Amino acid sequence: MMLGQKIKKLRELKNYTQEHMAKQLSLTQSGYCKIELDEVDIPYSRLEQVAKVLGLKPEDIISFNEQMVFNVMHNKTESGVNGVVFQNQLPSNEKKLYEEQIQILRQENTYLKGILDKVLTDK
User: Fold this and answer.
1) Which of 38, 40, 22, 41 is nearest to 30 (CA)?
2) What letter would DSSP give residue 91?
3) pTM (two decimals)
4) 38: alpha, beta or left, given left = phi > 0 and alpha = psi -120 to 50?
């Protein structure tokens, strides 16, 4: 997948329009469109700007793999509920990293809740 296509997919996942992106990047809509169509080379400085608008790091855009994203299917399942299917499972090393990060965030959350409770009860 080319860089412009990755930017387009990420923009769509954020529900941003091309007009919104163009405005944030001080471009015309047609100028921004050329980025998504890979009609222009994207300097790293512009990639940093695009990443900032999308709330990402440039390396997140470069390494984006659409197969790792949920594929929301609009087909009805036997139970009559729309299904969500993973196209690919995470590699075990990435899964482990995510699990470790989740554990760290849980510990941090517990710690901060304790501080907040202490501050609120000391008043």
Assistant:
1) 22
2) P
3) 0.56
4) left
Helical spans, DSSP H, in the chain: 3-13, 18-24, 29-36, 44-54, 58-62, 92-121
What is the gyration radius of the CA atoms in the chain, in angstroms?
20
Predicted confidence (pLDDT) per residue in 49-97, tens digit: 999 999 999 999 998 887 766 543 344 444 444 444 444 456 778 888 8
Name the residue ranges covered by the structural domains of the chain.
3-67, 90-123
CA dist., res. 55 & res. 45, Å (int): 15
Q: Give dist(CA 47, CA 59) in Å, integer.
A: 9
| Integer CA distances (angstroms), 1 to 17, 29, 64, 66, 120, in order | 20, 22, 9, 9, 51
Which overall architecture, per CATH, does domain 3-67 show?
Orthogonal Bundle (1.10)
